[in-house]
Design brief:
Number of domains: 2
Strand content: 15-25%
Oligomer: single chain
CATH superfamily of the largest domain: 2-enoyl-CoA Hydratase, Chain A, domain 1
CATH topology of the largest domain: 2-enoyl-CoA Hydratase, Chain A, domain 1
Distance between the termini: 29 Å
Helix content: 40-55%
Strand order of the largest sheet: 1-2-3-5-7-10
Length: about 260
């Protein structure tokens, strides 16, 4: 696809791979384009997002950022113009997203990882919020994701004291779901994505819709949303197939419709 992001499709799973650890303008542009293309592709029923080498994503490319600061370019406009659209596009994906964190994950890279639904991390991989360490506040919705995942108290600690922590600690806190040896990360993530791609796509889409606002909606709002989505999903071919399979005592075969 580009020299910063590649896409590989197999069995209903689209795998997006970041080829560089730092996010340059080109990398952000290419990743956003890839995410939008996946969103429009009805053959995609799950997504894997991963990196290469010893890093998943370490956030902003500081070399490019420093050059822009020295040139007087208003570099921080990039948050509104590039990071925000990227995080919104990831959050808007209507299929499950499995993030394969193959190595270091920092700053906006952590924000991007948290935009996925399921995270698999390499044993010993280093994580850090990074931002205040370079005199910046958070971006990429990292503050909100941390509050929802680990609570306000630990989120404050992680952001105010951006000290590194390892994948095992991230799993203990609930930031990642599985920790496996580095050489198994991509395989584990793809296996999970393949399982999701073979599942009831409409039901997964409905679950993602509810989860997106469950932490902030009132009970009444959540119940109303669940009722509407349940009615919609109840008309799907996958729901009928699941019921038929249950009655016939056989495994269901979902088609994503």
């Amino acid at each position: 696809m580009s020299d910063t992001v590649t896409r590989e499709d197999a069995g209903g799973v689209a795998t997006l791979t970041l080829l560089r650890p730092g996010l340059t303008h080109a990398a952000r542009h290419d990743l956003l384009a890839a995410v939008r293309a996946v969103a429009e592709d009805e053959s995609v029923r799950a997504v894997v997002l991963t990196g290469t080498g010893r890093a998943f994503c370490v956030g902003q490319d500081l070399g490019e950022h420093l050059a822009e600061l020295q040139s007087g370019v208003p570099a921080l406009a990039v948050v509104e113009e590039e990071y925000n659209p990227l995080v919104l596009a990831l959050a808007a994906l209507r299929v499950p997203v499995v993030v394969a964190i193959n190595g270091a994950c920092a700053g906006a890279g952590l924000g991007i990882a948290m935009a996925g639904d399921i995270r698999v991390a390499a044993a010993g991989a280093k994580f850090t919020t990074a931002f205040t360490g370079i005199g910046l506040s958070s971006d990429s919705a990292l503050a909100a994701r941390l509050v929802h995942s680990v609570g306000g108290s630990r989120a404050a600690e992680l952001l105010l004291f951006p000290e590194p922590f390892v994948a095992e600690k991230a799993a203990e806190w609930g930031l990642v779901h599985r920790v496996v040896p580095a050489e198994e990360v991509l395989g584990e993530a793809r296996a999970l994505a393949e399982r999701l791609a073979a599942g009831p796509t409409a039901a997964f889409r409905a679950v993602k819709t509810v989860l997106a606002t469950a932490a902030t909606d009132s009970l009444e709002e959540t119940l109303a949303l669940e009722a509407r989505l349940q009615t919609e999903v109840g008309r799907s071919a996958d729901h009928r197939e699941a019921v038929d399979a249950f009655l016939a005592k056989r495994p269901p075969v979902f088609t994503g419709r």
